[in-house]
Each structure stands twice: as C-alpha cells, then as structure tokens.
Design a protein that fits this description.
Strand content: 5-15%
Shape: globular
Distance between the termini: 15 Å
CATH topology of the largest domain: Conserved hypothetical protein from pyrococcus furiosus pfu- 392566-001, ParB domain
Strand order of the largest sheet: 1-5-3-4-2
Largest sheet: 5 strands, mixed
Number of strands: 7
Oligomer: single chain
CATH architecture of the largest domain: Alpha-Beta Complex
Order of helices and strands: HEEHEEHEHHHHHHHHHHEEH
Radius of gyration: 22 Å
Number of helices: 14
Number of domains: 3
Length: 285
C-alpha cells in the first residue's frame, strides 16, 4: 500500500533515479557490465509493440558503438545474480540482435510501483507508447497500486485532464480500440468518438472517408440527438460534479438521470474486465 506521505516521483527519469539513489547503494548503484543472459524482460513494461525497422537501426548502431546508456535493472535472484529490466528494453533487444555478450547496467532497489512508474515515464518521454498502452499503464497503477488520477498525473508529469482523458479511451468498444492500436485512427479521433452514439460505426466512416480530427468532432456534434443536448444543458452543476467524481472513483463512465426526489444512476462499461475491476473495488471498500 502506498504511503500518503510519499513524495511525487517528479517530472523526469533523472528525478526518479535520484529519489531511489540512497536505497540502491547496497544493491550496487555503480554502472557495471554483466552478461546479457542474466537480464530478464520487465514485468511492468507498458509497451507491447516494437517497430522492427527502428529496432534493426538501433541494433546496427549498437554493433558500431556499443550500448552507450546503461540499462536500468533491479535484482530479482541473488542465487544466480539475475536482474529484471526496468528501463531500456529497446537497447536490450538491440544488443541481443547485435550479438553482444555483455551490457552496461545500473542497479536500483525498486518496488513494484516504482518499477511500473519508471517504465511508464521512460516510454512517455520518448513518445514510444500508443495511447492505449499509456491508458492501460495508468489503469494498472490505479487498480494495483492505489494511485489516484491526481497523484498519478503529478508522478508522470502530465496534467490531470490528460490522464483522465487517456483513461477514458479504455471505455471505447473493442472494435474502436483495435483501430486505434493499429493506427487506423489517431488518439484525437478516439477522444472525439467517446461522445458518439455509435463509436464503432463512426470509426469505420472516419477511415473510409479519411476524415481529420476536427471534421470528426463536428460530425459527432451534429449527430448528437437534440434530446441528449437538452438533457445535458438542463443538468445542474452539482449533478455534473457527482458524475465526474463517481467516474473517477469507479473507473467507469457514470451518468445520473434525476426524476423528482430520486432518479437513476447508469454505469457504462466496454468489457467484462471493467466490471471485474468494479467488483474488486466494491469488495475492498
């Protein structure tokens, strides 16, 4: 469980390394060379795809100049001196392709949450993650490690609205998320589709017609039903605030429809996994 007094991890990888430097001394903080086979893939790597052309170009650079920046690792098995990779998986993969037998490493004694945050920040700084990979990493930090959107935004150096809007992409239908992952639509398109009545159908139309993000936003607005627009205008600020707060706490989009002194609360979900997470959250409470 994360302590409430824990300081934000800062807005860069260097700040993260500095925060853990004191605890890492006994694990061997100095840069040193180790056999490449002693390094295992990272459990908390948020990135799922690696561009083959970029990887081959990096491997060629490694063949010529070696690995110039050490890999960040943490010890996982004292018996065989093995290490888990935290940051630098592209360099590690390129070194394997280049046939290197040893690579430089920097060892840090990191907790699971620190390992995930560092892996996430490294990829965000290099803009290596897709929007969905970023969203899934945020969700993992919230679900597994108790992060809130506010302190998560501070930890990774993003605005709270950016984190919230990125997380909302996970509520899109599977067909739309697949198009986003494939690069057929952009993250801007996907955010616009969050307000569409039929996101999957509109995503197919966007691809077919080659629509840009601005045109997509206008199209979504034009096709919104008058009833929905009037309902939204009629909602008072307190109800809207409650919807936002419940959405953040539950991790699902929440809508409230008032009727007299009562009303209805609706949870919108895109997959059974989201319902499973909600069940875990309710049981924990």
């Amino acid at each position: 469980m994360i302590s409430a007094k824990r300081q934000p991890l800062g807005r860069g990888l260097a700040a993260l390394f500095g925060e853990t430097e004191g605890r890492a001394a006994d694990a061997g903080a100095a840069i040193r060379e180790v056999a490449i086979e002693l390094i295992r893939p990272g459990t908390f790597q948020p990135r799922r795809r690696f561009d083959e052309d970029e990887l081959e170009a990096l491997a060629q650079s490694v063949r010529e100049k070696g690995v110039l920046q050490p890999l960040l690792v943490r010890p996982v098995d004292e018996a065989d001196a093995a290490f888990e990779l935290i940051a630098g998986e592209r360099r590690w993969r390129a070194a394997q392709r280049a046939g290197l037998h040893q690579v430089p490493i920097l060892v840090r004694a990191l907790s699971d949450v620190e390992a995930l945050e560092i892996a996430l920040i490294e990829n965000l700084q290099r803009e290596d993650l897709t929007a969905l990979e970023e969203a899934e990493a945020y969700r993992r930090l919230i679900d597994q490690f108790g992060r809130t959107q506010a302190n998560l935004a501070d930890a990774v150096g993003k605005s709270r609205s950016h984190v919230a809007n990125t997380l909302r992409l996970l509520s899109l239908p599977e067909a739309v998320r697949r198009r986003l992952e494939e690069g057929a639509i952009s993250a801007g398109h996907a955010r616009a589709l969050l307000a569409a009545e039929d996101p999957a159908a509109l995503a197919a139309e966007i691809i077919r017609r080659g629509l840009n993000v601005r045109v997509t936003e206008q199209l979504v607005k034009r096709r919104s039903t008058p009833r929905r627009e009037n309902t939204r205008q009629a909602r008072d600020a307190d109800t809207a605030a409650l919807e936002r707060d419940l959405t953040e706490v539950l991790g699902l989009r929440v809508t409230i429809a008032g009727k007299g002194r009562g009303g209805a609360l609706t949870l919108h979900y895109a997959s059974l996994d989201q319902l499973d997470r909600l069940l875990v959250l309710l049981r924990a409470g």
